[in-house]
């Protein structure tokens, strides 16, 4: 293709509209077709990952360009068809899910405008949209007086938060800020010198064992070290940070040459959706004068529901809060936000550059970790305008109701047990063979007893294994783990529904158990969906159990007595 | 709006197509209208930033949702109309610019698929597209044997690079990796312990004075400290790192308890687009066994042109390289990539989590700093397919030609001088009053002379200021700085064209001068555009000069003799 035709075909303003509109129609049709799932394709594509990978094996950049309709066709056949239908109501496995249709329109606008929000010279209205929506989120969390926000909106040199690609960069921003405030000048002199000046040899982050893996990643990046993320155990069953253990840890650290950069409250653990007691956490932080960060990437959305925001009580005392738009705010990828209680916190990571981000400017890039950024805040602005707080409340309440419902259905089902008590729209459960379901409660009870009581109870219920009860239960769990992994994999492969899986230690204490993990926040996901999913999982579970039980009992004959009617 | 209507209106698959298509048409029309600039709006909106900001001052999240057509209308009137027309051929001020029209289609697809490329369970084909295109970029830089890439594509546990939001996160990834390789276990134990184990009290990064501000930002985030970014002077006129000064610095540091984490080569400085001598830099890095990182966020694109790739000779020896898609690869926001020569480098920042990113998986999130990510690599894949390497060469060659042309036009113009020699598609120049243009060369010559020669030459040309020549020149430059700032601001405000500005120290050595900075890489930008822009700038410059010269000569009467025919 020669120069002039390349230019006239592909670059505005000389592009031919008629041709472009034809391409746009093909694209929109393919997009809608994917979203409507009309062709009845599987959630994870008809063909195997290996077959898909074969489409993408040429290792050299194509030498010559192809015509757009040809590339579009290839895109649709190879890529669109083989994408994961994350927006399907039966896809309840991850926090990536349903988004309102109009976000497609927002992405068209964002792409066409192609603003770079790092700087007002490349983003005019976009700068103010970011600013305003950051104030909206700040207001939602901190609910400061009106004059505070008016002051913010009139003073370009103040930033109450940043947008970023997601929770990870949000957590990084918050914790670097906390580090910089704790150690004066650390951003200039580095950790080694700053520690020496503070007569300190170690700095740590405290978070529950359910904290997101990005906290460790953040610690590694910012030079603190993964090992200095001290994970505090959770209370069994609630998945909330154990406050007594936390205070013990703080007091122990106060005797060492160790500084605590931040205590991190988890508002919606990724694995179970449960929320730490933020009120009590904030009181502890105040008592010990420690930076309080809340990772509300998932659960921050609850602030939009008057029925559920109470669960986040105490978040208004957080020094920093992360909320992800692309999770429970139903936005498309990628949209994260980090907010700060104090409007001067972000000053500690402020930077300028000559050609861009001048000191006196309103450039948003002054306080962000990222440089160039897409105008993704339009999606939040548009959603809040179109759905409103009330609409969000409807969506969020329904999503949480969904989680309660599925959890209840699992718990009352002869072949499943719930493994956490949901608070948001995440829940875990696992398959159990029917023949053990009734016994399992007795087993739990025994497991939690001590010495004499334990032996007595075992003698009553399972006299045959009184000498090796713990070992047998462990074997049983390993067997159940295997079955649950197989259920999850096979269901994913069959492609009618999708739940994810994870491992928890909550109920069986020091033993990890594999659980199925559901995030049923799609507004079209309902009781019928759950019945369908549980039925499929039960059939799969029974199949794997029946297939493997002989082997299992051969290896662990003692376990036989745990089952009824076998 | 009640629950059921919210769901049926906005969420696929129950949404009504007909209504949605109507919205899509309105959106596409607005997008095309913006791109075609048909309404003759200014590049930076008709109304002032302050007036725009007034649209976005409500500080509470709207309580009730509005209908989509209403929100769309508001979006178009308040946001689209008041966005910066970065894709206009007369907008040559920043690296944010023209993109091929079909990227709008890619963004529709990316948004509809809403894949989260952190994990294959939420991104199937997308995972392989990322993988393949990372190999394309790796191949472009390192040109390893075919078997190497086949090995990569068959071994999911190997990563030769990451995509990220842009150059800043790319630089952070590369430099954290370099840090982790230099200090074993640092990601676990942190900087303080790692330094002690290595018997070291300081770690530094070396980069030219033209290094991007993100290097300092990175140093601050990763705990090294901004002050430990040692900036090496550039050679005057070329804007390339001074290699002698660099080696002197390295040798000096070797005598201290200091470790050098990386030497950073700049392949396309943000301010002038010039490229360090990467070949020689790589030799120095080999000699001293130092990690060689190349920030080719802007200039990496030259590898696609057989006419210009020679300028990047030596990049194939870099341990890590950053390239931004959203700069000179003409992609929409945001698209960055970081590539590593060694396929095991990224192992040092690998992480896993139970519910996601399992150890044995092909999940792309294992080695990224970011967590959840958008499927932005589709844009690179599509562009390379549609444009091809040859097409890119056409675009890039034209863009560089443009820079030469404008630089030449400025240099030969009676009212401008070029202030750097362009190598990519960035150039700087500044306005000078016609009456000084001829003298300016003599002034430069004198400025660079030493002692006796200098005095002699001043005596010949400007005898009146022989005792305070330096001071007068400094005053002159301050005056010119003011004029050039005013030109840039006024031109931006008038909205017909846009160039940016920055400050350089190259020609006048220790004095900073304000220069106009152009990035003329839009394929429709041409000689006529430049004539238009220079003519406008000349008129503005003359206006400001004539307006202010009386004041200037009043304060600095000695400067009068520098001007001809005044």
Task: Give an account of the 3D structure.
The structure is a homodimer of 566-residue chains. The first copy, chain A, is α/β, with parallel strands linked by helices and 566 residues long. Chain A folds into three domains: 3-85; 165-355, 3-Layer(aba) Sandwich (Aspartate Aminotransferase, domain 2); 397-562, Aspartate Aminotransferase, domain 1. In chain A, 46% of the residues lie in helices and 10% in strands. Chain A has 17 helices and eleven strands. Chain A has helices spanning 3-10, 17-36, 49-53, 68-80, 103-113, 125-142, 146-154, 167-182, 186-197, 213-221, 243-254, 278-288, 377-411, 434-448, 451-461, 469-494, 527-555; strands spanning 161-164, 202-208, 229-232, 258-266, 292-295, 320-324, 336-340, 416-418, 427-431, 500-504, 513-518. In chain A, the strands form two sheets. Chain A has a seven-stranded mixed beta sheet with strand order 1-7-6-5-4-2-3, with helices on both faces. In chain A, β2, α10 (213-221) and β3 form a beta-alpha-beta unit. The radius of gyration of chain A is 27 Å and the shape is globular. The model of chain A has no long low-confidence stretch (mean pLDDT 93).
Calculate the mean pLDDT score of chain A and round it: 93
State the end-to-end CA separation of chain A: 73 Å
Shape of chain A: globular
Main structural class of chain A: alpha/beta
Spatial ordering of strands, largest sheet of chain A: 1-7-6-5-4-2-3
The residue ranges of chain A in which pLDDT falls below 50 over 5 or more consecutive positions are none
CATH domain class of the largest domain in chain A: Alpha Beta
In CATH terms, the superfamily of the largest domain in chain A is Type I PLP-dependent aspartate aminotransferase-like (Major domain)
Helical proportion of chain A, percent range: 40-55%
Helix and strand run of chain A: HHHHHHHEHHEHEHEHEEEHEEHHHEEH
Largest sheet of chain A: 7 strands, mixed
CATH fold category name of the largest domain in chain A = Aspartate Aminotransferase, domain 2
Number of separate helices of chain A: 17
Binned strand content of chain A: 5-15%
Architecture per CATH nomenclature, i.e. the level-2 architecture of the largest domain in chain A: 3-Layer(aba) Sandwich
What is the subunit organization of this protein? homodimer
Gyration radius from CA atoms of chain A, angstroms: 27 Å
């Amino acid at each position: 293709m020669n120069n002039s035709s390349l230019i006239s075909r592909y670059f505005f303003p000389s592009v031919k509209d008629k041709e472009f509109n034809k391409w746009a129609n093909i694209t929109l049709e393919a997009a809608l077709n994917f979203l409507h799932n009309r062709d009845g394709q599987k959630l994870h594509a008809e063909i195997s990952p290996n077959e898909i990978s074969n489409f993408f094996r040429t290792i050299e950049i194509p030498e010559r360009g192809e015509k757009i309709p040809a590339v579009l066709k290839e895109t649709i056949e190879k890529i669109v068809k083989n994408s994961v239908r994350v927006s399907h109501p039966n896809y309840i496995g991850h926090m990536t899910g349903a988004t309102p249709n109009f976000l497609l329109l927002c992405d068209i606008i964002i792409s066409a405008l192609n603003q770079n929000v790092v700087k007002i010279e490349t983003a005019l209205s976009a700068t103010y949209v970011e600013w305003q929506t950051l104030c909206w989120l700040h207001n939602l969390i901190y609910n400061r007086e009106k004059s505070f926000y008016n002051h913010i909106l009139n003073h370009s040199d103040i930033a109450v938060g940043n947008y970023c690609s997601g929770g990870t960069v949000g957590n990084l921003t918050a914790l670097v800020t906390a580090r910089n405030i704790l150690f004066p000048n650390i951003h200039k002199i580095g950790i080694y010198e700053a520690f020496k000046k503070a007569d300190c040899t170690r700095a740590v982050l405290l978070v529950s064992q359910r904290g997101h893996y990005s906290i460790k990643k953040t610690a590694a990046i910012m030079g603190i070290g993964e090992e200095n993320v001290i994970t505090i155990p959770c209370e069994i069953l609630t998945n909330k940070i154990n406050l007594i253990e936390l205070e013990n840890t703080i007091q122990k650290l106060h005797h060492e040459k160790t500084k605590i950069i931040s205590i991190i409250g988890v508002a919606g653990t990724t694995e179970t959706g449960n929320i730490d007691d933020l009120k009590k956490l904030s009181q502890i932080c105040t008592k010990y004068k420690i930076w309080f960060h809340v990772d509300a990437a998932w659960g921050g959305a609850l602030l939009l529901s008057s029925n559920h925001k109470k669960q986040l009580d105490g978040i208004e005392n957080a020094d920093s809060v992360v909320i992800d738009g692309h999770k429970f705010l139903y936005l498309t990828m990628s949209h994260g936000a980090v907010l700060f209680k104090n409007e001067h916190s972000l000053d500690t990571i402020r930077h300028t550059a000559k050609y861009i981000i001048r000191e006196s400017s309103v450039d948003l890039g002054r306080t962000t970790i990222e440089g160039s950024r897409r105008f993704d805040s339009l999606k939040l602005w548009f959603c809040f305008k179109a759905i409103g707080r009330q609409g969000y409340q409807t969506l969020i309440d329904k999503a949480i109701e969904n989680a309660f419902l599925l959890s209840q259905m699992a718990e009352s089902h002869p072949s499943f047990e719930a493994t956490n008590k949901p608070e948001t729209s995440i829940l875990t459960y696992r398959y159990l063979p029917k023949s053990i379901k009734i016994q399992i409660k007795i087993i739990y009870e025994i497991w939690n007893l001590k010495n004499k009581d334990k032996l007595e109870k075992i003698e009553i219920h399972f006299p045959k294994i009184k000498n090796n009860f713990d070992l047998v239960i462990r074997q049983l769990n390993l067997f159940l783990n295997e079955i649950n992994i197989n259920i999850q994999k096979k269901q994913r492969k069959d492609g009618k529904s999708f739940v994810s899986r994870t491992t928890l230690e909550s109920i069986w204490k020091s033993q990890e158990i594999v659980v199925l993990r559901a995030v049923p926040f799609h507004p079209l996901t309902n009781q019928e969906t759950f019945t369908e999913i549980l039925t499929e999982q039960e059939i799969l579970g029974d199949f794997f159990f029946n297939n493997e039980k002989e082997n299992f009992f051969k290896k662990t004959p003692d376990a036989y007595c745990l089952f009824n009617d076998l």
